[in-house]
Amino acid sequence: MLKVTRRTREVDVILDQQLAEDIARLGDALASETTREQITESGVNGAAQRTAQRIEELRGQAESETLKLTLRALPVSKWAQVLAAHRNENGTSDMFGTAAAALPLMLVDATVGGKPVSAEDKTEKAFRTLFDELTDGQFTPIWRAVAELNGSAADPKAAFDLASKVLRN
Known about the structure:
This protein is of the alpha+beta class. The protein folds into 2 domains: 1-15 and 66-169, rbstp2171; 17-64. The protein has helices spanning 17-35, 46-63, 76-85, 95-106, 124-133, 136-151, 157-168, and strands at residues 8-14, 66-72, 107-112, 115-116. Strands 1-2-3-4 form a 4-stranded antiparallel beta sheet. A hairpin with a 2-residue loop joins β3 and β4 (115-116).
C-alpha cells in the first residue's frame, strides 16, 4: 500500500489580546528602531536593545497564555466534506464554521501554557465559541494554516526543473 505523509504546521495564538497587542506594538517599534541606525560608538543601538529586552520579557508572560496547535492536513475527501458542509447559500464558504469543523479532525496536539487542552475544548462547538471571542489578528493565523494545509498543493516540479538547469550549467 502506498503511504502518504501529510504536512503539519504549528500555530501559536496568544489568548490574552492586550498582551498580544503590546508585543505587536513593540515589534513595530523595534523594526523602526533597527532601521534608524541609532548606533553608538560602542556599536550598540540602545533603544532597540531596550525594546527587544521588553519583548523577551513579554514572551515569558505570553507562554502561559498561548494556545499552541499542531495541525495535520486532511485527506482530500475529508476536506471536501468539511467544505461542502459549510458552504453558504450564495456558494461562498463560512470560514469560521469550516475552521471549527476542520480543527478537531486536523489536531495532532493542542496545549495552553504547555498543558494539554481538555477534550471538551477540542470540539467543533468549542472552537466556534473560541472564534467568537478572538480578534481578527488571532483568528487569521488559524484560518491561514487550515486553508494552506488543505487547499494549496506542494508541487516540486518547478524546483526540480530549476535545480536540473542550474546543475547542468
